[in-house]
Structure formats: C-alpha cells, structure tokens
Design goal:
Elements: E1 6-17, E2 20-31, E3 35-39, H1 46-53, E4 61-66, E5 69-70, H2 74-83, E6 84-87, H3 99-109, H4 114-127, H5 143-155, E7 161-165, H6 173-187, E8 192-196, H7 200-206, E9 209-214, E10 217-223, H8 224-231, E11 233-238, H9 240-247, E12 255-262, E13 265-271, E14 287-289, H10 293-300
Parallel strand pairs: 3-8, 3-9, 6-7, 7-8
Antiparallel strand pairs: 1-2, 1-4, 4-5, 9-10, 11-13, 11-14, 12-13
Helix pairs in contact: 3-4, 5-6, 8-10
Length: 302
C-alpha cells in the first residue's frame, strides 16, 4: 500500500520545563486518513506534545508541520489553525444555548457560509442521533451527548487534522460507538486524526497507527500491526491436555507469561525470544487467538 501524504510532521521535538525533560527528540508522521493514537502513562509527554502541536507552547527544539506549514511561524500558525479541529478532555460548550447555536458560533469563527454550516451540522447531528434534540439547551444534556456535540464542533469546518484528547473517557458503550462511527466517516474522506487515549479497548478498535511514549521518548511508532509484532507475544487456546503438552515442549528461550481461562477454555500467553521467528511456534491441537492490546502495551512500556 502506498504511503499516505503527510498531514502532520513531528520532527525531533524536545521540550524542557526547568529541570524536567518532558519530550526528548520525538519524531513521527500522521498521514491522510490515518487514526494515530498517542499512548503512555501520565507524565509520558502526551499532553505536552499536543499543546505544542496546537501552538499553545513552544518546543525547546525541533519543529511541527501541518500540511507543510510550520505552526510557530506567523503565517504558518494562522493557516494551520484553519486546518485543525480540536477536542480537549473538557467539552467547553456554551451550556445556556442550544446545540445549533453552539455550532453556529463556532462556524462564524471559521467564516463558514450559513447554509454550508447548517447542512453539515444537521447531517452530523443526525449521524450521532442528536438531530431531534438540536434546539435544546445543552446544559440539560448527558455527558455522552455533550461529547458527541463537541466532536461535531471539531469536525464542522472539515479540518485536515483533528486532535482529540480522551474522546471517549467516561462514556457509555453506545456513545463510544457513535463517536467511533463519526471518526470512521471522516477518515474515509482522508481526514487525519491524532488521539491521546488511555482507553485500550477503543484504541484496538480505531487505531491504524500508534506512538507509545515513556518519559518523553518514543518506545514505538508505526502501524498497529507493527505494534503487535514488536511485543513478540502469542496467545493460544485449547484443551488442558494439549496446552500442557505444548507448554512442556516450548523452544529454548520461550517464556510463559501466564495461563488463564476464559469463555473459550484454557489459554496461555507466551513471549517469543528474538532468536525465533514467530511462525516457528505452531503447536498442534491449539488455536491462536488475538493478544489483548493491554498485554502489548505493558510489554513494550516496561
């Protein structure tokens, strides 16, 4: 598959706060139509990086380019803001007015034509199940409804890059699904997403690419498939007898991470040493099943 044109280029970005090195030489790209997720524990540098991308703070060194424009140069900064959609962890909606009035205020900032923003707003509100509530005061709404409206607001001016900070935090399953659908819809139109999230179940569903940060440095950056391969973990299901036989014949250097039981029965998670190819592990009588993303994350973030 051909490489997608780059929308966001992070080039050797570092940021220090007094004696704390929040970011250290961070570099990666986000291409058209990609959903690129930032992972890392609190303090890993995710929020600092997002603030630099949005032009809220300046990098100590390095550069950030959005569609080839440097976000810290006067002309580039102004133009890149038109290309960005943003959702912070807090929704920051005007709760004393309606959903449509919120979207109208935002559309004026981006100088959208009246009929253009109304058509887009009504279409997106319909897609997330909010159209019939569009004239209600937002302060009466649930957290999930407000979150969906905030995402519509971030997407309304059809940005090239959308930056989302914990978009599904605290939401119910149905609301998460609606937000996922909205992201998929825009992604199919080549919108790029950079998402900071600790919700590994959601990451597993939506991410095309992942960057894992720890203490300001990149541990991994690339495709979600490469993320899985990097951890060198495999998980197998089968009968107790077949599993015991397999575990007793593991090649030298292969480690048992854990044994477990779930709805499919007995299972084992193993770690493959660098000396072995993953396809060399082919146990008879066992079925290979997906490794949970949480295990991959913990393996790489040691």
């Amino acid at each position: 598959m051909a490489e997608q044109p780059s929308i966001l280029s992070i080039r050797n970005v570092s940021r220090a706060f007094r004696n704390v090195q929040a970011l250290n030489g961070v570099s990666f790209e986000v291409g058209e139509g990609q959903v690129h997720v930032l992972l890392g524990h609190n303090g890993a540098g995710k929020t600092t990086l997002i603030r630099i991308i949005l032009g809220l703070i300046r990098a100590t060194s390095g550069s950030v380019l959005v569609s080839g424009l440097d976000t810290w140069k006067t002309r580039g900064g102004r133009q890149t803001r038109e290309k960005l959609g943003v959702l912070f962890e807090q929704d920051a909606l005007y709760e004393d007015i309606s959903a449509m009035e919120n979207l109208e205020l935002f559309s004026r900032i981006h100088r959208l034509h009246h009929q253009t923003w109304r058509n887009r707003a009504e279409d997106m509100l319909t897609s997330v199940g909010l159209y019939d509530r569009r004239h209600e005061r937002v302060g009466k709404w649930s957290a999930g409804m407000k979150r969906k409206l905030s995402i519509i607001r971030a997407l309304q001016h059809q940005p090239q890059l959308v930056v989302l900070d914990e978009p599904t935090a605290g939401l119910d399953v149905q609301s998460r699904g609606k937000i996922r659908d909205a992201i998929d819809r825009c992604r199919s139109q080549n919108t790029a997403f950079l998402i900071a999230s600790q919700d590994l179940a959601e990451v597993q569903r939506i991410a095309s690419h992942v960057t894992l940060l720890r203490r300001g440095k990149i541990l991994y950056s690339g495709t979600i498939a490469g993320f899985y391969a990097q951890a060198r973990l495999k998980r197998f299901h089968g009968s107790t007898e077949a599993l015991k036989s397999f575990l007793g014949s593991l090649p030298a250097g292969t480690e048992l991470v854990r044994e477990e039981q779930d709805v499919l029965g007995d299972a084992a998670l193993i770690r493959i040493p660098p000396s072995l190819q993953a396809n060399e592990i082919r146990p008879m009588g066992l079925a290979e099943t997906p490794v949970p993303l949480e295990d991959i994350y913990l393996e790489l973030d040691k």
